[in-house]
């Protein structure tokens, strides 16, 4: 049977049973299938993104594939478990889903998370400076793709800005709905790094660092989708929003 002879409703049902690599392959078959795959929000669920320890989920993959996905409010949870991503890959993922995501979980090496924390600090510093001068905030993607270091900050300035994150509230935080950010270091422990990420994710979600919120103390459940496509490791994570 020719897939192209099937109505979109049937094709969508078929895609819900596919894993990520098969879904992407389907989208490469024909322009109509490509349109259906990337523009249909029903297809893109939290369980589809991203396969655990998938060596194919690289920065290049994220830069090429993720922007094609239609923006919608269906992605509430993001799990990035032991993926070969640099800080740029993480920021490009954040850029695509920051408007909707409520729960982020990352398991990575200390080196990878330290790089992420550093660049989130510089990104947050830029947002602070732009807000002070009533300028349009930059996006995660703009920062990640900056090849000319337009957003670079001096060490002293960055240090001073970091001290202000705990006392500054963004008018337009990039994480509009984030409630919980979990991180697990797969190689060693680093309380300083965990605390640094805690401050940054609170700041970038518009929440005071010292805020006491009972809702944050509760485990935010992952969405239960009908089509569970990937399994995840169960390690003891650091809950940055508690």
UniProtKB/TrEMBL annotation:
InterPro entries: F-box-like_dom_sf (IPR036047), F-box_dom (IPR001810). Coiled coil: none annotated. Residues 1-47 form the F-box domain. This is F-box domain-containing protein. It comes from Rhizopus stolonifer (Rhizopus nigricans).
